[in-house]
Design a protein that fits this description.
Blueprint lengths: L2 H15 L15 H4 L7 E4 L5 E5 L3 E2 L9 H11 L11 H12 L10 H10 L6 H17 L2 H11 L6 E2 L1 H9 L8 H8 L14 H17 L5 H9 L16 H15 L9 E4 L3 H22 L6 E2 L6 H13 L8 E9 L2 E6 L4 E4 L1 H4 L20 E7 L5 E4 L5 E8 L5 E5 L11 H4 L9 H10 L7 E4 L6 H4 L15 E4 H6 L3 H11 L1 H7 L25 H12 L10 E5 L5 E4 L15 H17 L3 H7 L5 E6 L5 E8 L2 E8 L12 H4 L1 H11 L14 E4 L2 E4 L10 E2 L3 H10 L1
Parallel strand pairs: 1-5, 3-4, 14-23
Antiparallel strand pairs: 1-2, 5-16, 6-10, 7-8, 7-10, 8-9, 10-11, 12-13, 12-20, 14-15, 16-17, 18-19, 19-20, 21-22
Helix pairs in contact: 1-4, 3-9, 3-10, 5-6, 5-7, 8-9, 9-10, 10-11, 13-26, 17-20, 17-23, 23-24
Pfam families: PCB_OB, Transgly, Transpeptidase
EC number: 2.4.99.28, 3.4.16.4
GO molecular function: penicillin binding; peptidoglycan glycosyltransferase activity; serine-type D-Ala-D-Ala carboxypeptidase activity
Length: 750
Amino acid sequence: MSISHISRALLLLWVLVGPGVYAASPLDLPSLESMTDYRPKIPLRVYTSDNVLIGEFGQERRDFVAIKDIPLVQKQALLAIEDSRFYEHGGVDYKGVVRAVLADLSGGLKQGASTITMQVARDFYLTKEKLFSRKLTEVMLAYKIEAELSKDQILELYMNQVYLGQRAYGFSSAARIYFGKPLKDLSLAQAAMLAGLPQAPSSINPITNPQRAKARQQLVLKRMLDLKYVTEAQYQAALKENIHVLAEGQSINNHAPYAAEMVRQAIFGQFKDETYTRGINVYTTLVSTDQDAAYAAVRRSVLAYDQRRGYRGPQAQIDLPRDATERQKLIEATLQKYPASDTLLSAVVLSATPKSVRAVLANGNSIELLPEGLRFAGNALKDKAPAALKIKPGSVIRVEQDNKGRWRISQIPNVGAALVALNNQTGAMRALVGGFDFYSSEFNHVTQAWRQPGSAMKPFIYSAALDKGYTPGTLVNDAPLTLTSEETGGQPWQPQNDDNQFDGAITLRTALAKSKNVAAVRLLRAITPAYAHDFLPRFGLDPSKQPVNYTLALGTGAVTPLQLAGAYSVFANGGFQVNPYLIQKITDIRGNVLFEAAPVLPAQEANRVLDARNAFITDSLLREVTSSGTAASASQKLARHDLAGKTGTSSDAVDGWFAGYSGSTTAVAWMGFDEPRSLGSHEFGATVALPIWIDYMRVNLAKQPVSMPTPPAGVSMSQGDWVMDALSDNTATRSIDLDPLQKLIDLFSF
């Protein structure tokens, strides 16, 4: 007899002798410390404040659930198919091993005989190679495990450790990933489907191969019926149940990837590689309904802008092979390079005429686009269309469905956008969208894009002027202006109004509402650029990013959307600086709190940076903007009169902004190209950014009552407008750059 056959005979003998033999085994068995001190690799998870999962980072998607919390139906389903005698044998089911060894003696170890205990031994300590020496060690380890751990401890380890496909480790994680449910909420049919996965998790899971997964599930259910774990009625009902499997194999809300990535970076900075295995949970300040609304608002407005700019042509062009098999392979490989961007799907054109386009999607489905859905790309379907624009067979295009299921041509926008919303009392971020598609560009415009704010900077200049004694009723001359070389320190400069119209003597209230550039420059000249520049830090603005010259009035410095949101919050909350923050709480796998934010309490005088009277009056100016000025459409579309804010358009319409607030929410929207260039001669903050803000605030304010500020002590109405009491006597005589005759006329008419 060969050495190989002697070894096989020894295995059979040891199995039959029983578990007492493992102590005398010549094998050097490892310690069970990794089991008794089990520390599963659980990923970093990021949640909204209302417990919606928005991010998961780690190679293994895993939860840990104590055996007492695992539903009986899930345990029974697993035992039925994997190890029905688990609670009876001593770690090795000798009947199964005898069959496997005899089969091996006749030609190889081909029959499976592993109990759950043996699988635990293999998963923790061994490889899955079908070698006799490995099997011998596995048997001895199984006996050792059974001697040192209880049955429930072994089953708990297995059900949390086993791989179930789609990077899911353990049944709790699989329940969430495949069905979007906690383990306790699974039906019998769903539990049976999960129980069938350990055999071949990568190839028979319900995402990669739903037919084989269903067949395996039916086998599990039949075994449960045979073992009397379920009744005939339960069995039949489970067979008929239509199981909904999540298409992407996850239950993560994909509307907050920029915020989730901000959290990942912050946690990695502290915990390094443990970030992805320690089971850290981070609870952000985001509100899921607000985040969803912000995400939808950004995408809707970006797509609308993109449609206004016209079709740019297919994303790529391939030559379709004549052979059907080769053509299919090329199409599949090509579309993998152009993944879906939410509702924007990639497709390869099979045929194209001005009235009809046939295309195939990444899932293999063929679609037809009719004239209504081709209107956007009409020029690209003409015979004489330029080569870069033309749609023809082999073109890679983007398509989406309308609410009636009709297909239409679209495209991936190439413009950037952002929205961030804060609780303006505490600084907690309610929503954050850093761009159109995180998976196309991870650049976070909310925190990383330093852009010119344009006229969105003007309220800070006006607030500085109030601090110097000017009032909303102060008259300023909106007339052509030339600043000399001595004043500019360089070339002479003639600031221009966006509408190229001059209104003569107007109040500061009207000047801000209409966003008059020349009036703003005259006002800055009156208070001096140095004074205004020194005034900015109280709003949290970085003075090093702002010029100390007259262009400051037109917003030629740089801000981020997040910084601007914090700055406008000072006007919204009555004069208190806030520090925006995203992370509310961090816990470990056992729920121990590792960190909890302690934001400043609202309206603490120690945090006041702006006189309450100044904040109130500036607020009234910003409310004028939304009621009669450049942002009047906000009040009209939201049907509310408690809105405040300011549009902003930088030089040549490179950046479009709207910064505003209502109630406890301040939100800032921005749009622009990453490589700065004009958005278009007819585009302004009111056309590209304000619609984003309106769409978001429509949801945010839906259940909030109208809220108007209460005048603080020390302000009163004088000659039809708010003034600080100490200034009320001289408001009628103060003006900016009016000639004596004009001052007399205006004074008389006033």
